Amino acid sequence: MLLTSLQKLGFTSYEAKVFVALVKNESATVSTLHLDSGVPNSAIYGALKKLEQKGIIEFQNTKPMRYRCILPEDAILKLKRDYGDECDNVLDQLNRIYGECSTNKSEELMWTINGIRNVTDRVMQMFEGAQKEIIILSSSTPFYKLADRYKSLKKDYTTMIGILNKKTTDEGVSLKLISSCEEEARKLSNIVPLASVRINSMEKNPLYLKSFVVVVDNSEMLVDILKDDDGEADLTAIWTNGKEFSSTMSHLLNAKWETSTEYHPL
């Protein structure tokens, strides 16, 4: 797992193995690193050179030469700073390309977003961009229960609630939540006090809703579908910022809002 994570930070397989071997040793020679990492001697020098360029290892001009890594905390802070700088540089260039290639076409398109983390990221972006109103029709599976299945999403759920509280409290954004169950209505009323919550009662015609819908400012919408494949839950969503689609969905949700039961906490 550690080697995989380091590779996601831009390390090659050999660089990751040599770096971990250096962390294990106060200082080490190439022969020691070869034994501890399993990296061929011929490849270790190249890996060390790259790690030196990253600024996270130091060497001593002895015979044989000795190497050591800087403190892990300092190494990660440096990597984060360099990664952030590189992301800023890439963003500037991509924005420039996007600006040169973008057109004034008003065609309304719908886009598919796959993966629970990617869908969650888009929902948070929508919440952050809200200026007037957020309307949510929740699925029969409350999102916090879905988050409990995935440790990585627990933090995202907390972040979402923080965004919603900031929007309703500090920015005066209206939040309407149409819940499919009383349990979720109670929880959301407690943790987002300024949200208006209603329950979409299905007692006469029970329906298990496998999707939730988010509409922001009548101009952006996301429809999510919860999939269960071999017991593993995942999310796929359809997103658009087309005003025609979004305003139509907003109209439908507001109609559903009017027919839902107002929730009054006990």
From TrEMBL:
Q: Which InterPro entries match?
A: TrmB-like (IPR051797), Tscrpt_reg_TrmB_N (IPR002831), WH-like_DNA-bd_sf (IPR036388), WH_DNA-bd_sf (IPR036390)
UniProt domain Transcription regulator TrmB N-terminal: residue ranges = 6-73
Q: Which Gene3D superfamilies match?
A: Winged helix-like DNA-binding domain superfamily/Winged helix DNA-binding domain
The name under which this protein is listed is: Helix-turn-helix domain-containing protein
Q: Which organism is it from?
A: Methanolobus mangrovi
Q: What is the lineage of its organism?
A: Archaea, Methanobacteriati, Methanobacteriota, Stenosarchaea group, Methanomicrobia
